[in-house]
Amino acid sequence: MRRFISGIAAAAALGGSLTFIGATQAVAGPQTAEATESARAGCVKMLDRYNKRFNRYIKVKNTCGRKACFSVTVAARRDPEFSIGPNKTDEFRYGGIAWTKASGIKNIGC
């Protein structure tokens, strides 16, 4: 009987704490700065990745009317960061031929 009552008490305490966490998040509301940043961050699209002589390059396009920043995702390395001008297509050298091939790009804030 004691185990049953302690289980019910624990479930009530857990449910109360989860309700409190949900209420705290509802009061805080959506973070508008983060939402606008993520909306702006989708400007840069990867078009191609290729090798030229002993270097690895990535070709990207910025579809927004402002400067955008991005990083090239490379496994087991620090991701190099670049910026591209508004409404522009450009190529960037992100490493030597010994580097692993880029798996994509991440849009970041400038």
Structure description:
- The protein has 110 residues and is of the alpha+beta class.
- Helix content is 34%, strand content 36%.
- The protein has helices at residues 2-28, 32-41, and strands spanning 44-52, 55-62, 68-73, 81-84, 89-96, 104-108.
- A 3-stranded antiparallel beta sheet has the order 1-2-5, with no helix packed on it. Strands 4-3-6 form a 3-stranded antiparallel beta sheet.
- The radius of gyration is 23 Å and the shape is elongated.
- The mean pLDDT is 79.
Task: Kindly list the characteristics that best describe this protein.
110 residues; alpha+beta; three-stranded antiparallel sheet; 2 helices; 6 strands; 34% helix; elongated
What does the secondary structure layout of this molecule look like, with pairings?
Elements: H1 2-28, H2 32-41, E1 44-52, E2 55-62, E3 68-73, E4 81-84, E5 89-96, E6 104-108
- Alpha-beta classification: alpha+beta
What Rg, in angstroms, do the CA atoms define?
A: 23 Å
Regions with little confidence, pLDDT below 50 for 5+ residues: none
C-alpha end-to-end distance: 61 Å
The beta-strand count equals 6
Sheet-strand content, in percent, reads 35-45%
Give the overall form.
elongated
Percentage of residues in helical conformation: 25-40%
- With strands numbered from the N-terminus, the spatial order across the biggest sheet is 1-2-5
Write down the overall mean pLDDT: 79
Supply the number of helical segments: 2
Helices and strands, in N-to-C order? HHEEEEEE
